[in-house]
């Protein structure tokens, strides 16, 4: 099936809802809608698409149980596309209005937009490559396995983000387990993220890579990443311990304000940061990186903006930690540490 060269305005629950479709191509689409922009299946090619969706996800891959069995989302390429959260209709009319979006408590929650795997995640996400994506006035990248999915072999590169209203990068392995009884907790492994530039990210949330106790995210690589957070975090916020929230709906706000401004990494086995730089637009007194219950963490050529008396790293129950060739931080190798900041 091929869909190409048309526009959708206010598409309803989904701009395009495809379930159980194989060999599916979407090309040169403009979707300006109030809910999810598109959902796709197996052997999928998405290219040259623009999806604006202020109240729900933009390009959204799901692997649910709607056909009566868990169906994997695999062999997918997404390239040369844009996601955003402007007010409905203002993408297509060219005015790009940035309407304030409020939650049920009357708080400014910001728009949605974004590119996401999940939330429905029964069947898995495998063998997926994504490149040349622009995020503008929306939420960040979200890769989620909370219903038993095996999320593995994913490569994402050449991404720019501007005015991001939660975590620029959010990897979450959880145990919501919405689906058939008896399913096991899933996995996230072999994920590569490279060539990201992020400007003006939400000051409440760092990028988050978090599994749950007994279930680690595995083998994550981050290369050539630049993140400019909005800043403004306090030393009091640096002392926060985010809840595990194992069964909660996966969103960065589930953890509350994060005690680091750059990356919060918890329950991870095998992660490498290479040529990663984090900084802020106004002073932030939280550490740049906080690691909890992490094994085999390597930081090479990492640079972080730090206020006086703040720290680059906050480590909690970390094994096999290495940092090398990183300005402002001495080369350090730690076999095991319960608690350390430097």
3D structure, described in words:
By secondary structure, the protein is an all-beta fold. It has a single domain, classed as Pectate Lyase C-like (3 Solenoid). The protein is 0% helix and 55% strand. It is built from no helices and 21 strands. The protein has a 19-stranded mixed β-sheet that branches. A two-stranded parallel sheet has the order 2-4. A hairpin with a 7-residue loop joins strand 20 (313-324) and strand 21. The radius of gyration is 19 Å and the shape is globular. The N and C termini lie far apart (55 Å).
What is the CATH architecture assignment? 3 Solenoid
Total helix count? Answer: 0
Q: Could you tell me how far the N terminus lies from the C terminus, measured between alpha carbons in angstroms?
A: 55 Å
According to DSSP, the number of beta strands is 21
Structural class: mainly beta
Q: Detail the poorly predicted runs.
A: none
Q: What is the helical fraction, as a range of percent?
A: under 10%
What is the succession of H and E elements?
EEEEEEEEEEEEEEEEEEEEE
Residue-averaged pLDDT:
93
In the CATH scheme, the class would be Mainly Beta
Shape, principal axes of CA atoms: globular
Summarize the structure.
The chain is mainly β. It has strands spanning 2-9, 14-17, 22-32, 36-39, 42-47, 50-52, 57-63, 73-84, 113-121, 125-138, 141-145, 150-164, 169-173, 187-201, 207-210, 217-229, 263-280, 289-300, 303-304, 313-324, 332-341. It is built from no helices and 21 strands.
